[in-house]
Amino acid sequence: MRAVRIHQYGGTETLQLDQIDTPTINADDILINVKAAAINPVDWKIREGYLQQFIPYKLPVTLGWDVAGVVTQVGTEVTDFKVGDEVFSRPDIARDGSYADYIAVKASEVVLKSDKLDFAQAAALPLAGITAWQCLVDVSQVQAGQRVLIHAGAGGVGHLAIQIAKAKGAFVIATASAANQALLTELGADQAVDYALGALTEQVEAVDIVFDTMGGEIQANSWELLKAGGMLVSVVEPPSEEKAKQYGVKSAFVFIEPSSRILTELNKLVEADQLTPLIEHRFSLEQIEAAHLQSQSGRTRGKIVIEVN
Ligand SMILES: NC(=O)c1ccc[n+]([C@@H]2O[C@H](COP(=O)([O-])OP(=O)(O)OC[C@H]3O[C@@H](n4cnc5c(N)ncnc54)[C@H](OP(=O)(O)O)[C@@H]3O)[C@@H](O)[C@H]2O)c1
Q1: How confident is the model at residue 208, as a pLDDT?
Q2: How close is the Cα of 155 to the center of ligand 1, in Å?
Q3: Are 183 and 301 in contact (CB under 8 A)?
Q4: What band does 56 get if pLDDT is binned at 50, 70 and 90?
Q5: CATH of the structural domain 2-125+277-307, one choice from 1.20.140.20, 3.90.180.10, 3.50.40.10, 3.40.50.920
Q6: Is the peptide bond before 60 cis (omega within 30 degrees of 0)?
């Protein structure tokens, strides 16, 4: 089968389209014929070697940790799936990924995809959707009527976070460049903020939750936007505990894990027409370098999908 692998860490030139054996599955795995995979910033961060300390890969490794496809084989212990099922998953990041014709995934990390999603949309949802749900619902416990600020609302995580927060009844404020202001409103944001127009303290009234997908100065400038007792949740860098204490707020850092529970919740929102992934860029496996460069640009609206089969 075809698989895009890296044999060493480095730039996009390390992405190599190899011919390799189809993976063998464990008793608790299923084998998925990949219809679509999605790109996430973690893919190129791993490619560059930034996460070597946390995830010690034995190279070569196949990249890509979002998948939608069709079950072609089930392990001897698997009872929840059968050959032919249409599924999606954010599989274990420590195993070979989804930029390939086939991927072996633990059945417990897989969910049947909603008929309302095509394969590309289903591949666009898991990693970014689980991230947004975990931060807003599980960790921040967003409540109806709360004010939620979502940084980078036009991005892969942010555009799903806006929809999830709206579905939970929050008043949603989201940031983007001038070019993406209309998109924020289309996604359901109650207030669209152009971050280039000045300090957010001048543009945004106090909020209950800040969802930080940017880190750095953007995170540092977020403390004073929070009401006392509010929550700053980041997926980029652990917020300072000292600052949280100083401002009388809570803070959390989240690094996501596979979750079929959350995928099931995302499916429910899809079925209720409250959640639709936006795909702005489609590539083939052969175009993987261009797909990574698009993700690295930091300017992607919605998601980047690799159409595999
Ligand atoms: N810890 C975890 O488990 C976890 C999980 C998922 C993602 N992440 C991390 O979260 C980050 C975001 O991921 P993603 O997939 O959403 O990335 P992405 O899709 O590449 O984000 C691109 C978006 O960022 C926006 N942006 C750029 N500069 C901005 C600024 N100064 N203010 C507001 N928006 C800005 C862009 O909008 P404009 O062009 O309009 O500026 C663009 O739409 C990445 O660093 C990723 O690695 C971590």
Answers
A1: 98
A2: 5
A3: yes
A4: confident
A5: 3.90.180.10
A6: yes
